[in-house]
Amino acid sequence: MDVRNCKNCGKLFNYIGGQPLCPTCMKALDDKFDQVKEYIYDHPRAGVQEVAEENDVTTMQIHKWIRDERLSFTEDSMVSLECEMCGASIRTGRFCKSCKDKLSSHFGSLYEQIPEEKKREFKEESKMRFLQNRGGNKGKGPL
């Protein structure tokens, strides 16, 4: 169990991953997200600065939601980002469709290159049994 201080309010909480926010602050952030999403729906041509000011949220938080693909803007919106690989204009996320496809095919080809682990041969007359190492008990004594 990992106990941390909330990045927002400083309270101690059980950290289970993701943003280091306590459940109360995480709920407040989710409520702000819903508010921002509704505002963008009602004002599709609003810019990031306007959305931030009207909803009492930082522009950095709005950009994070856009990069995480939680928020997106319409094509006629003034808001646009640059693809982190090629610099093309995008509306949400970190990469354009072309770069996503390239990354996906590259990672797929890397996966295919991983050699299959040699399997240990089992001889019927042998009384030795092999257990597959699952990484959980490395040199820590008997199971």
UniProtKB/TrEMBL annotation:
Q: Which UniProt keywords apply?
A: Cell projection, Cilium, Flagellum
According to the record, the residues making up region (Disordered) are 122-143
Origin superkingdom: Bacteria
Protein's UniProt name: Flagellar operon protein TIGR03826
